[in-house]
Amino acid sequence: MKCVQRIGRGATPRRQAGATLLVAMIFLALITLIVTSSIKAVNVNTKLVGNMQTQKEADAAALQAIEKTISSDFTALPTPATLTIDNGQAVAAYTVSVPAPVCTGIKAIKLSELDAANADDQPCYASGAAQNTGIVGSGASGNSLCSNSNWEVNATATPPASEPAPTVHQGIAVRVAVGAAC
């Protein structure tokens, strides 16, 4: 006798067994793409932050070299210098190139810019009856007996195993007697 299986009403044959696998593979591929792009974004951001930190450290090293230069009497004989600045970490030090400072000009200090209570400003006032107090109309020019020589000091720091960072520029004024030359 032959056995016949009847499918009852409302029952459907099981023909969707491979569709679930296909949908699962598509979602797995999408999730893999999302994770891969996230990892790439994190790597780019990490490199960006590292480069910014190196740039800031190079700027700080250049400023420290400029401070070292202007703390000496650099106006007497301006000479170029190459300094090694340690950033206090376990990595190698920065090499900083400081060209010779350049005098950009001399500017007379006005009496109105001086402070009579400051001991450094007192030699700049005229003495005796001809003293010019900085009051408008009290003197011909209003200039004191002192001038500022204006200097430009530059420094370029090179991080370890890297290209040089941009040059840092610093202007400074040094008090000199009237009539002094650069």
UniProtKB/TrEMBL annotation:
Organism expressing this protein natively: Variovorax defluvii
Domain of life: Bacteria
Transmembrane segments: 21-39
The UniProt record lists the keyword Membrane: yes
Keywords: Membrane, Transmembrane, Transmembrane helix
Protein name: Pilus assembly protein
Presence of keyword Transmembrane helix: yes
